[in-house]
Amino acid sequence: MATIEQLSQRTPKVSVDELLTGFYPSPRFGDVSFDSYRPDPAQPSQAAAVKALSEFADMVNQPEPTGLRKLFGAKKPAARAGIYLDGGFGVGKTHLLASLWHATAGKKAFGTFVEYTNLVGALSFRRAVDALSGYALVCIDEFELDDPGDTVLMSRLMRELADAGVKLAATSNTLPGSLGDGRFAAVDFQREIQVLADQFDVLRIDGEDYRHRGLPEAPVPFSESGLHDRVRELKAGPDGILAEDTFSDLVKHLSGVHPSRYRQLIDGVDFIAWHQVATISEQAVALRFVVLADRIYDKDIPVLASGVAFDQLFTEEMMTGGYMKKYHRAVSRLTALARQGSEV
């Protein structure tokens, strides 16, 4: 019999050590590899990205020459510290980034952009640099700059890690030189943005969103009575944890939980049920919810919901504004999870 819990009643506590040791791919990408990535034959850039990342992994794994080998050995061609995967939603960028992480040896970190900024907030900038400078590879998924402070912070962090010999890999839906466009006065921070761009070789990956390629439209939300019936069936089914919340209660609760703890907020949850999903109209609330959606997607948790469909979760203004790529990603991921929820 499933246990019913409420995310809105959970208040996870996370130590600094837990934050630092939690930088690895989520279970969804726990055993992916370059071989398990399936390039679309119609998109040559996908196969080219696999080849380039495989070669980058070899470079990370190849120890730097020391002593006489360094003095008299063949000079290695100059290379930038990082590789940057630019492409639309669902082309497999995170799959490839996680494959790179799995293919490299030594100390390495894998996390989202938000998780790194949260880490700096928890440790302090200098302690974060000191901790990550000993890594062979740092992978940053969903690289986005949402405000000037993050621009300066990540510019300094990437520069100092690159100077320490750390290899960098990142994914985003925006070219490095265009980060920040539409969000704030990016021109005032062009130097920091250029510093970021100079750290990376860019790989463009074209293609359609695999989550929806050849699949039916997003399922219609449950009626309120239909969702109650489905929850009763799940409760009477196999053991597990069903997190059931009224959407407004959950949204309100998120304002009191730091986003760095959202991974722990859903720890152990097998299914999620949201009653009376409504369009979010406040930007700060919407951005917090995007982080939660990413963490739920990482853990591949089916979502059952009543209320508005997920393509109406954010206002039209949000879906066309400066943060539109975050919101489109969240809609894409929640739609995939709702499709799973309609089949459980």
UniProtKB/TrEMBL annotation:
Keywords: ATP-binding, Cell cycle, Cell division, Nucleotide-binding
InterPro entries per record: ATPase_AFG1-like, P-loop_NTPase
Superkingdom field: Bacteria
Signal peptide location: none
Gene Ontology annotations of biological process type: cell division
Coiled coil: none
Pfam families (UniProt xref): AFG1_ATPase (PF03969)
Protein name: Cell division protein ZapE
Organism of provenance: Arthrobacter flavus
